[in-house]
Amino acid sequence: MSKSAAAQPITVEWGKEQVVVSDVARELPDASKVDDRAKVVRAGTASGLASLPEDAWHAVSRASINPELVAMQLRRSEDAGGSLLLEEHVDGATLRSVHTRVWLTELFPGIQPRTGQNALDEDDPQVLGMAEDGRPQAILRYRYRDRAHLRKHIWQTVEGTLTLNSYEESILARRVTRALIVHPAVFEFEAEGEEPVHALVARDGITRLASAWKILAGPGATQARAAELAVETLTAEREQPPNEPPKSRSQRWALSREQRRGALREEFGRESAGEVPSLRAIQIAQTYAVPAHIAVGAEAHHTGLLPAADVFDDALRSILASVHVEFKPWDAAAQNLEVATRALKLVVQTRAREWGMEELLGEVYALAVGRRGESDTPDIFQDARIPGSSLWRAVYLLHVLTRPRLFDELRGRAKEIKNERRMTIKGYAGLLGPVVDKPWRGQKKSVVKQALKAWGNGGVLSKDVLCEGWIPVPADDFTSLVEPALNGDDDARCTLALAGGTALIADKLITSNVGSALSTRREPGKVPFRADANIVVAGLAREGNALGLWTLALAAQRFQADRLPRNAGSRQEFGLPGEDDASAGYQHVAVDLEAPDRIRRVEGTEVPLLTWDVVYASDEARAQKAVKDAQPAAPVLWPSPRQPGEQGEPESEPGAGPAQEEADERPVGQRIADQRQSLGRSLDQAQGALAKLAELDQGRSQPLFTDRDEWAGLRESAIHVLKKLEDFRPPMEEDEEAEPDGDA
């Protein structure tokens, strides 16, 4: 066993911080013995309270620092005196775990709920439960495409987790002190001939796990390097010696990890030989092992309605939700996505068959969580007329998830999961937001927070949308739905409400009423009156509101899932000129009911739609009253479009730069011209680098810059360059003088 030095705390430099290490082990635990690991396997397979296949017991025994203590917990649990296993009771099941310390190098990171609401570069694996003889087993199957998918997913989870948060200073000072929630898993691969791998997966405490890898990587290591180290260690495979009996891939990977631990132990011995252990020795000692609760058994209650194979996963998710939704919350989007998808899964498992909707709701669940893409929408809803686009996916998901029977059942399940007594329409809309915007969340990530706030403010859930009896109307052109909507077709009207409302929220043209700035003038970022998001959508889709319905239809028709419109960003809010380049994005447009195509133009140029216009169109009478009541009343002005060349970039003259070199005898003016050209080339290269970064960033939800100091340094440099350019702005051009006569 390890023991700690009875010495004074050690202060170490960690990056830019000083960390006081209160306690550090001077010895590391030895590798466990084969005989002790065998005791775990025998005790586990004989236990009536545990339920794992034999390969999973081998994974548990390999991971434990002291397998003999694990075996004792399993054996003593059969005695009449009571179980030594940890028991947690949730709705429908009891989950049993052993408490032990495990090697860091034996824990694979599971699916990270904190990043689950984001659009990810690598899809999460499919998670399936297991059962034997009608009895649930405390193990899950993680199905990957191939081993490369597993490696990329581990990297993404560790790097993405560290981007959000890190406990490295705390762990360096005190080790990991709170137990991780861990369970056995079998990694299956869809690729033909790929052998499955048994291991342990951390489902709670992933941030602690990732932070430990960051410490092991070193004080100067990036999040990406920490992720690479985790992947290299966890998935390295020892070659099969020709003179030994064949070993499974699980064993070959485990032997490689054991060799890695041996190398760390030797390194620790060298680095801790002095009176005071080195920083490297402290890194190894503080991360070598972590406390864990390893799930080993799941028992379904008689009142449970879930299939046996689904009991363990649901019990585990229930425990995680109780920790992170009720007590130590994830961010709101992660909570809402977890609650919404889990509630839907429970309804599919418990009520869908009774309603005769088992197949449909199963497919709806797959569409909601991303297992099926938007192109599958026509097949799922069995209507070939439905366009297979992300916006039509949103329309049909919203429709089915707001039908009264399913709406009531989902709200009930969500209240149970969140342990709340009531849930308002706004609360339910907030659950749907991260489900609806999944296809475009990465591409529109700069406005995701505002969009999710708008969903939490009611989203598109107007009273008419929530009513029974209407169905969406498929159409290739949303504007074709306006005329039937004005003629009393509720199906067309509600379809426009869902499609147009979702598009306007996604593109930051309908926002939460919190903080909305009032103005009687039509200005970017302002509104004529405050209203909840769903009230604005209801007003736009009100019977007979031509201005509102055309606003919804044009927004839905112009919506693009792969980028933001030009009139959605901060440039418009700050009154800056828009981008001239058509490739910079599409544009939502203001409505003119007198124009043939209903698009407002000034001097032939389309007028961009503002949030002010959207709110105005939702209730013209209220907006006009707000304008009239203002003293003095300001007229509603439509801005003139910027004329071509009006905002042309001024020619910059940054000056001579460095001091003149003695060897350069050229005129100063020539050297200045050369430096101007050099500056232009450097700026072109910078723009090219930014364009390449933007290209690489397409579809990702994680920030491009995870190191704030790096970003701040680049920003400071860019501002310095801009200030210098402004200092050298050329004088305004004067009228050209008349040409001199030829005789002069």
Automatic annotation (TrEMBL):
It comes from the Bacteria. Residues 639-660 have a biased composition (Low complexity). Residues 235-256, 626-685 are annotated as: Disordered. This is Uncharacterized protein. It comes from Streptomyces sirii.
